[in-house]
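dumping this here so i dont lose it
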């Protein structure tokens, strides 16, 4: 686990933001976003997690609580989360079982809150099962999809950022427009969300855009994105 803020048992003095990447990715992909959040004065922890090898349920039930304990996150003035893709499902699982008393705001970037038809197709191909790992099988839209086991409504301050520009030809074949090549915009919504924003970006590239980072910071500050949603 790597962070952009000190670790240890010291009591955090600033609002804490935990950043979580998506499946089959690493923290370097969210590093630029994490630096921008840190520049706004937050204590930021940009975490790596075993997204390919550990089941989503275990990540939410055991792995994330353990990391938060190491960070002494329960003692922070506020605890915020910023997630990309599958990271949103991890946090939703965690919050379904244990809601931190200091929970602040959550920003989900390109979350498959209602699964992805791309995962439905790729799980049938051995190469992609190897490449993406064990959680590919539960990221789809079928009856065994992981999101179906989660509370259907957000009871926390939630902002969602979706992408609407696809580069992958697979998404163009299998997803209803608009989509980011991996997740349809319609699937990113979650009942109870406070704000929803659509940016002209693809599923991975959305993390590298300056306007994504600025919108994330705006929501963490105020509970609203910096401009009106286009969805």
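and the seq i came up w/
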């Amino acid at each position: 686990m790597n962070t952009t803020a000190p670790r240890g048992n010291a009591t955090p003095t600033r609002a804490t933001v935990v950043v979580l990447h998506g499946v089959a990715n690493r923290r370097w992909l969210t590093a630029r976003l994490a630096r921008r959040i840190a520049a706004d004065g937050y204590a930021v922890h940009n975490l790596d997690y075993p997204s390919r090898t550990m089941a989503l349920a275990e990540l939410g039930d055991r792995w994330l609580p353990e990391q938060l304990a190491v960070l002494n996150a329960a003692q922070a003035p506020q605890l915020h989360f910023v997630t990309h893709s599958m990271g949103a499902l991890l946090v939703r699982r965690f919050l379904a079982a244990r809601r931190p008393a200091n929970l602040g705001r959550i920003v989900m970037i390109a979350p498959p809150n209602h699964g992805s038809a791309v995962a439905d197709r790729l799980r049938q191909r051995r190469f992609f099962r190897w490449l993406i790992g064990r959680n590919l099988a539960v990221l789809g839209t079928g009856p065994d999809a992981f999101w179906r086991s989660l509370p259907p409504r957000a009871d926390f301050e939630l902002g969602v950022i979706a992408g609407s520009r696809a580069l992958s030809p697979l998404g163009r074949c299998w997803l209803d427009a608009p989509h980011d090549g991996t997740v349809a915009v319609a699937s990113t919504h979650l009942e109870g969300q406070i704000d929803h924003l659509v940016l002209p970006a693809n599923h991975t590239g959305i993390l590298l855009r300056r306007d994504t980072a600025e919108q994330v910071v705006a929501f963490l500050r105020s509970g609203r994105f910096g401009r009106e949603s286009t969805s």
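The first strand starts at residue 16 and ends at 20.
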